[in-house]
UniProtKB/TrEMBL annotation:
The lineage of its organism: Bacteria, Bacillati, Actinomycetota, Actinomycetes, Micrococcales. Keywords: DNA-binding, Phosphoprotein, Transcription, Transcription regulation. SUPFAM superfamilies: CheY-like (SSF52172). It holds the Pfam family Response_reg. CDD domains: LuxR_C_like, REC_NarL-like. The modification 4-aspartylphosphate is found at residue 69. PROSITE patterns: HTH_LUXR_1, HTH_LUXR_2, RESPONSE_REGULATORY. Residues 18-141 form the Response regulatory domain. Gene3D superfamilies: 3.40.50.2300. This is Response regulator transcription factor. InterPro entries: CheY-like_superfamily (IPR011006), NreC/VraR/RcsB-like_REC (IPR058245), Sig_transdc_resp-reg_receiver (IPR001789), Tscrpt_reg_LuxR_C (IPR000792), WalR-like (IPR039420). Residues 171-236 form the HTH luxR-type domain.
Length: 240
């Protein structure tokens, strides 16, 4: 069995984070393999040319992180992400679900929200610098949200603008299930803070923060920290 990451996920036998690349352009996959292959602690274990192939590859390879394009034949990246996060690719008992980072040239507000609501752990643009891309994969493997700065701002703007009354009521009801301390942590997650930053700000240990985050994800019916942040924004608490 692989080693456990600090967020509960598994890594390869050598401790490396296992990565699958999904893009219908072979040249893009080759470039990503070159970039990530040189990243410390990263191992590209497989590639896929569309969403359907990605489901099979992920089920077989059980990677820690998937870099997913959006517009692909047969099955697009958003639907593939939704199926992966929903459990279409099983993993061993006790291990974390695969974390999907959407990597695309398209950054419309609707597309960002659709990808993140599908369960993507991050959204990056293909012009992301190589060092930032490596850091993003490492962060996703550690359970941290991964968004390009421009994308993060668009997300906040879009959620604030488009939050429907029903969505806000549901979000407020979910937030109401949290304890006072969990609410504080949830608000920090909504601001995009890492576990270490939350621990420092709220005078808690990192393991305690991780415990709170795990409970928050369950109570907010969120697949990951990004979805929890969306609930916080939907509830109108982002600026508090």
């Amino acid at each position: 069995m692989g080693a456990m990451s600090d967020s509960g996920g598994t890594t390869g036998h050598d401790g490396a984070t296992r990565v699958v690349l999904v893009d219908d352009d072979p040249l893009v996959r080759s470039g990503l393999r070159l970039i990530l292959g040189g990243g410390p602690g990263l191992e590209v274990v497989a590639e896929a040319g569309d969403g359907l192939e990605a489901l099979d590859v992920v089920a077989r390879e059980r990677p820690d992180v998937v870099l997913m394009d959006i517009r692909m034949p047969r099955l697009d990246g958003i639907e593939a992400t939704r199926r992966l996060v929903a459990g279409g690719a099983s993993r061993p008992a006790g291990s974390a679900a695969v974390r999907v980072i959407v990597l695309t040239t398209f950054d419309t507000d609707d597309m960002i929200l659709e990808a993140l609501r599908a369960g993507a752990a991050g959204f990056l643009l293909k012009d992301t610098p190589p060092d930032r891309l490596v850091a993003a994969v490492q962060a996703a493997a550690a359970g941290e949200p991964t968004l390009s700065p421009r994308v993060a701002q668009q997300l906040i703007t879009a959620v604030t603008r488009d939050s429907a009354p029903d969505g806000k009521r549901r979000a407020v009801a979910l937030i109401a299930t949290l304890t006072d301390r969990e609410r504080e942590v949830a608000l920090a997650v909504g601001r995009g803070l890492s576990n270490a930053e939350i621990a420092a700000e709220l005078f808690m240990s990192v393991p305690t923060v991780k415990t709170h985050v795990s409970r928050i994800l369950t109570k907010l019916d969120a697949a990951n920290r990004v979805q929890a942040a969306i609930v916080v924004h939907d509830a109108g608490l982002a600026a508090t």
